[in-house]
Amino acid sequence: MSKSLLSYIDDNYPPTTEIIKVGALTTIMQTVITTQGFERNPELREEGKWAATQMLEVIGRSRHTEDEEYINGQRVYAQLALARFVEEEETKEGYEMALEYWRDARDYYKSRGDAFSVRGAESSIDRLEAKRDGRPEGLPSEQLLKDLRHEYLKSVKGKGEESSDTVRSGIVLIMALARGENSFECERFCVKLYAISRRVHGPDHDLTGRIESSLRQSRVRRLAKVTGDGPVDYQVLQVRGNEKKYVVMSRREGDVSEILFDDDYMIMPGTPVVCHGLKNAQHLNGKLGDVRSFDTATKRYVVRFEDKALNKASVKAVNLRIVMDLPAHS
After folding, report:
1. The pTM is what?
2. Do 248 and 259 touch, CB atoms closer than 8 A?
3. pLDDT tens digits, residue range 73-122?
4. Distances (CA, A) of 48 to 32, 39, 67, 95, 131
C-alpha cells in the first residue's frame, strides 16, 4: 500500500511537492497504529515501519523552510511511530532504537517548552529501559498522578479543554494512568479526550490517533494461562452470560476459542471485574473493581473498588466476573 501510494505521487506530482508524501505516509502510519491487533500482525507492523522510515527520508530531503514547524512535528511523529513498531519486536536492539527516538522526542519537546510532553517522553524512556534490562517496570507514584491531574485541570482552566496543549497534557495523564493500571479512570478519560480531539482536530489528526490507540488498549481485557512453557497471554473478546465461559484470542497466535475459566487461568492486573455470589461480604456483590494482584498463598485476587468508600478486598476467582464494557458512571 505504501509503495503504491508513493509511486502514484511521484508519477502525478512535481518533485518539489514532497511534503504531500509526508501527509500520505502519516495517514498510513496512523491507520496501522489504530488497527486493532496490529501488534500481533508482523506484516502490518512491517508496513508501518516502512512507511515511518520512508517518511523520515522524505523529511530529511525536505527544503520547505516555510513549513519547518509542521515538518519537525511530523518527524517526531514518524520517529515515535517507528519506536512503537520496533518495541513490539521485543528485542534488545528494538528497545535501543525506540529509546533513541524517544530521547530525540524529549529534546524536541524541551525545545518547545512543552513540559507535559517532556514528562510523557521521560515516562516512556523509563518503561523502555526497564524492558531492555529485563526488570519490572516502575509504576507511577500517586503523587505523580496527582500532579498530572492538577496540570491537566490547570491547562483546562487557562487554555480551555479544546486547546492542543490541554489535549497533549491529557495524553501524558493517560500514559501514566495506563502504566499504573488505573483502568476505570484511564478508559473513561480516554473516551472523553478522544471525543474532544476528534471534534476539534478531526479524526485524522495525530493527537486524535494517539488517543484512539490508547482507548483501544484501555479496553483490552486480559487473561493468562499457566503452562509448562510459561504463561500464555489471552485477550478476552466476550463473556458468555453469567457462566465462567469466555471467548478469548491468543495474543501470540491469534487463535480464537471458548474457554471455561478455572485455576489454570489468571486474571491480569488492571482488569475490570464485578463481584457476585459473595455470602460473607454481600455488600460487595455488584460492585465494580479492578484486579490489583493475585495472592498465590490464598488463591485470591486483591480487588480495588471504584467506590472509594470501599476498602480493597481479597476475593476468590469464582466470585469475580470480567467486565467488558464499563458503565457510563460509577
Report:
1. 0.66
2. yes
3. 888 888 988 898 888 888 889 999 999 999 999 998 888 877 767 877 88
4. 6, 11, 24, 17, 22
